[in-house]
Amino acid sequence: MPLRLGDIAPDFKAETTEGTLQFHDWLGNGWGVLFSHPKDYTPVCTTELGTVAKLKEQFDKRGVQCIAISVDSIREHHGWIGDINETQNTRVNFPVIADPDRTVANLYDMIHPNADDTLTVRSVFIIGPDKKIKLTLTYPASTGRNFAEILRVIDSLQLAAKHKVATPANWEDGQDCIIMTSVKDEDIPSLFPKGSRKIKPYLRYTPQPNK
Ligand code: BEZ
Fold first, then answer.
1. Which of 35, 37, 45, 87 has most ligand 1 atoms within 8 Å of its beta carbon, as the pocket-test mutant?
2. In angstroms, rounded to a whole number, what is the distance separating the alpha carbons of residues 203 and 169?
3. Is residue 177 annotated as a catalytic residue, yes or no?
């Protein structure tokens, strides 16, 4: 059964480039991004891990730790990280899980046999402080992911965790938000003191509450 939003992210013990870790302990009370790549020493994956390394400050600001995984070995990871650092002008600053026996890949359903029966697809799991899965994404091997989009989703998730709002299509941090339909009109002034706009009874906007 595939993992679904709201499920507890399965715990596991794994070897990584930064030592052995127990996933839930490593997550602690923060947010996490677990993302798989198909294979070490491949071009798209090289740009992806370099991009995540360069975004560390952005992930840190949001209290999010990133961790990558593929079915390659620790030895391969270490060698390839040298190439990533060299070609992407960065330093890989997050752990990369070595999963040659596919324990974690199978636990998270990261191998899609009709796409490739040995390599992981490009999966992303955003995990909240409650260890629940908040987002899943699956990209094919030929398409590198947009990690600015991952940060954008994290901004939306963290906002919705604290305020009774959702975010509209293409929303970016700082833009108006949608008031949840569960909020009664009469409660809007106290919950959203910055004001509101009512377009339809179910479509009400407010300035971003945490800005
Ligand atoms: C890549 O990262 O470029 C890649 C990896 C596996 C299959 C195809 C492309």
1. 45
2. 13
3. no
Average pLDDT score over residue span 109-120: 97
Q: What is the mean pLDDT of residues 127-143?
A: 98
Those residues with Cβ within 8 angstroms of residue 211's Cβ, 6 or more apart along the chain or in another chain: 173, 174
Q: What mean pLDDT value characterizes the chain?
A: 98
Distance 176 CA to ligand 1 centre (A): 38
Q: Whose CA is nearest to atom 1 of ligand 1?
A: 44
Q: How many residues does the chain have?
A: 211
Residue 146 phi, psi dihedral angles, 5° rounding:
-100, 100
Model confidence at 1: pLDDT above 90: no
Instruction: Kindly give the distance from the C-alpha atom of residue 110 to the centroid of ligand 1, in angstroms, as a whole number.
Output: 15
Domains of the chain, start order: 13-144 (3.40.30.10), 163-206 (3.30.1020.10)
* Any atom of ligand 1 within 6 Å of the Cβ of 38: yes
pTM for the full predicted model: 0.97
